[in-house]
Design goal:
Elements lengths: L2 H4 L19 E6 L4 E4 L9 E4 L2 E4 L3 H12 L4 E6 L3 H15 L1 H7 L4 E2 L1
Parallel strand pairs: 2-6
Antiparallel strand pairs: 1-5, 2-3, 3-4
Helix pairs in contact: 2-3, 3-4
Length: 116
């Protein structure tokens, strides 16, 4: 059994702001409480959106939506900062987090709950 599987999510809920790209422009997004689901990436209107509880938040690109979902999966409610520039910045931030904490920790928080 992996170490991260033995811990409650509330014990590991911090997604460090230290992983934000230094000097890069950021969007601040308010995440409501609730279960988060991504829309299908092929969805013309909502590929860049995330459904949280009864709310739908439209972001600049898919990477922002995926990063917002990770924050929600870690029960992070309220204002969060997300890189503006590109999907690459968000993916790099997730990759850095994974390299530090391990794939098992990252997978532990990333469930596959996509809205259809």
């Amino acid at each position: 059994m992996e170490l991260f599987e033995t811990l409650a999510r509330t014990q590991l809920r911090r997604f460090p702001e230290d992983f934000l790209p230094f000097g890069a422009p950021l969007d601040t997004v308010e995440l409501p409480e609730g279960k988060a689901r991504l829309f299908d990436p092929a969805d013309f209107y909502d590929a860049h959106s995330i459904a949280i509880g009864g709310a739908k938040i439209t972001l600049r690109h898919r990477g922002q939506a995926e990063l917002a979902k990770i924050y929600c999966d870690m029960q992070h409610v309220g204002f969060v900062k997300i890189p503006v520039q590109s999907t690459f910045s968000c993916l790099e931030m997730m990759k850095d987090w994974t390299n530090i904490f391990g794939r098992h920790a990252f997978a532990f928080f990333c469930s596959d709950n996509r809205a259809h």
